[in-house]
Fold Carbohydrate ABC transporter permease.
Amino acid sequence: MRTSTGARVGQYAALLAYLVFLAFPFLWLISTAFKPPQELASLHPTWIPENPTLDNFRQAFDEQPLLRAALNSLLAALGAAVIAVVIATPMAYVMARHRGRLTRAATGWVVVSQAFPFVLLIIPLFLVLKNLRLINSVPGLVMVYVVWSLPFALWMLAGYVRAVPAELEEAAAVDGAGRLRTLVSVTAPLLAPGIVATALFAFITAWNEFFFALVLLKTPEKQTLPVILTHFIGAEGVADLGPLAAAAFLATLPSLVVFALIQRRITGGMLAGAVKS
């Protein structure tokens, strides 16, 4: 009994330490965003600003086109999420319902493709977009985000499809419904929570992405929010810390809110494929 209690206390202590470790950067970012320059330069920093100010937020909007960059990020993230879900839904249905060598190979490729580093993909993607004349454009960036998020979207949706009882589709087939009608009228409504979770996950991935946007977007008018944040760092590597923290805090809020809404659904999608009916 003592051993069990001690183990449980140790688990909670480890969990608390991990939560503190995760929360520290964000809490320090919030603190920095509201500090005046005098406190930012202090040799004895404090957690809570002694004289909180909104000047860093005003300065951030004055120095960089944050609203335009946020609009570019929103368009890229929404476009990538919608297109990825539209493509992934029928593909995930086939992968989940039709077991065979081809689907097993496709599933293996989906898993392996997640291990590819960004640097390995950027050169062929750049050449393809150059031939299509989509360099330095939001539509070109959307195409890249769709390619990058599609494997994980397939994996998530395939798990949700496996969680839908096949007997419902068999009953629809007995009533004369074809494959497409069954997918649209029977399976898709049951997959709605999974589709929403997958779309939101693709949105978060595209919203936070930096490397592809940095390489493919050249003019400030087309750049996304993560790239614009680098403009707060001078040529000599000196950061305008207050405005940078304020802009980073605003850029982080949408992804935090979305992830808080879907984190249970993401976990359910990951685990659904491991449960057999």
In short: The chain has a mean pLDDT of 82. Residues 4 and 10 are 10 Å apart (CA to CA). The radius of gyration is 23 Å.
